[in-house]
Amino acid sequence: MRIWQISDLHMERDEVVSGKTFGGVPDADVAVVVGDLSDFVEDNIDWCSRVVRPKMPVVYVPGNHDMYGKCIYSDIDDLRAFAAGRGVTFLEKDVVVVGGARFVGGLLWSNYELWAAGDDEERETLVESRLVAAQEKPDYKRIYADRPAGRLMSPWDSRRRHKETISFIRRELSRPFDGPTVVATHFPVHVGSLQPQYVGDHDQPRYLSDHCSLIEETQPDFWLHGHTHHAVSSAGRSSPTIRVATPTRRPVSTGRSSTRSKPLEPSLPDPQDVGPRPWVPTRRVLRRPRRLRKQRSILVSWTDRNPSRRTTG
Fold it and tell me: Domain with 255 in it: what CATH number?
């Protein structure tokens, strides 16, 4: 199965409405969009319907920018229906089977717990201070938790949604499935997806969470995400799961500083090639897991057209 990963294009509205592209549509079996094509989710879904759907099925996971002006609860069913009417599968705490592969997905958000050390009380005090500090961030001024009441989403709301989504993913991955499983979230699930200069940065816990233990426990074949605007493909020593975010890019001529990525073929590395710690990022081509060798799994992507942008969006 060939998977086309698309994320974090952050197009202007006139670009997404006009059907702007960043190169030719690749030959793939399914496109997995992991959010933030622009700040206008219906336009993003229409873009997928017009540009991608004629060539292949589309699985759409929203990003935080997709939810601008929307409610994280009451608008989800309407967005599922809107997407379905255009031949696009919208995943927000959902699962779908395409071409014999199971796709489990959701926006995810963050739990604000990254690098929180100490006992339970100390950790909770630190997390609470992070939630308070995050209230002025754009997401919490443009996304609703209760739109009819005019109540904006708070960091506590997004953290609650994160826990709900992780519980959903864990539950779905515990169900037997005869075929490959791909988890797709906008927010990343391991510190290895950060740009190196931001490791240890105090602001990063609102961008990603550490769910290495969940990955090792459930072992999906792939975990795709966006958000960090950073190319990474990595595997863990104790788990065959391949994490992929915004794969290796190359410039294309689009009239300005746009980029898209080279094809990437991620899969299981030799044990001796994995360092002593799990989830060592690598950009080399890896061998496919044994159970996927009969289904050639390749990821290609259009992603992060502005590599100079800050680590996340």
Answer: 3.60.21
Report helix, strand or coil for 98.
strand
Render pLDDT for 129-155 as a digit per residue (tens, 0 to 9).
999 999 999 999 999 999 999 999 999
In the numeric block, which tokens belong to residue 148?
């009819």
Domain assignment of residue 308, yes or no? no
Helical ranges in the chain per DSSP H: 13-18, 41-47, 76-84, 120-134, 139-142, 155-173, 212-218
- Please give the Cα distance from 101 to 106 (Å, whole number): 17
Spatial distance between the Cα atoms of 277 and 19, rounded to a whole number of angstroms? 43
Which has the higher per-residue pLDDT, 271 or 99? 99
Q: What is the DSSP-derived secondary structure letter of residue 159?
A: H
Q: What is the bridge-based pairing of β-strands 232-235 and 242-245?
A: antiparallel
How many distinct structural domains can be found in the chain? Answer: 1
β-bridge partners, 152: 144
The residues that bridge with 146 in the sheet, in sequence order, are: 151
Position 231 scores a pLDDT of: 65
Position 313 in a domain? no
Per-residue pLDDT for 192 more than 80?
A: no
Boundaries of domain holding 39: 2-303
Any domain includes 171: yes
pLDDT of residue 254 exceeding 70, the answer is: no
CA distance 268 to 295: 14
Confidence (pLDDT) at 86: 98
The residue among 261, 256, 38 whose CA lies nearest residue 47 is 38
